[in-house]
Write a structure and sequence with these properties.
Layout: H1 2-21, E1 28-30, H2 33-39, H3 48-55, E2 68-77, E3 80-88, E4 95-107, E5 110-122
Antiparallel strand pairs: 1-5, 2-3, 3-4, 4-5
Length: 137
């Protein structure tokens, strides 16, 4: 009886791992060097949202679609932030949206970006509809 129970537990465990590992969000890493050079010495960037807006300089008025851009900021340490920008409703025939996740630290009045990663999702029937790095067609 115990062996049957152990086999059932292992089967359920393997099934759960398979399901959850297929849903892991993937990202592409972006080199931070050029952006850090752009913001070096600037003291006019006051908030994490302003930093992200400077990185993702997007003009919605030029978009033919119905874009939605949201920014979330999470404090992850003293003067350290995780900034997430989600842009959905791309006016593109294959890609539906994009996500940028930036990690940055403010020292005095200046910023340094330690990490930028990005991913996207496709329109229905054009590829993956979850946040990831797979190709959209």
């Amino acid at each position: 009886m115990k062996m049957k129970k152990i086999k059932t537990v292992y089967t359920v465990l393997i099934l759960c791992v398979a399901i959850f590992s297929s849903c892991v969000e993937t990202f592409e890493t972006v080199d931070t060097k050029s952006f850090n050079e752009k913001i070096a010495g600037r003291t006019d960037i006051k908030t994490p949202e302003e930093l992200m807006k400077l990185y993702y300089d997007y003009d919605c008025s030029q978009d033919e679609g119905n874009p939605t851009i949201t920014t979330r900021v999470r404090t992850i340490g003293k003067n350290k932030y995780k900034i997430t920008l989600i842009h959905e409703g791309f006016a593109d025939d294959s890609q539906a949206g994009g996500k940028i996740v930036m990690t940055a630290q403010q020292t005095g009045a200046t910023w340094i970006v330690t990490k930028i990663k990005t991913n996207w999702k496709c329109w229905e029937d054009r590829g993956h509809t979850y946040w990831g790095t797979g190709r959209c067609s």
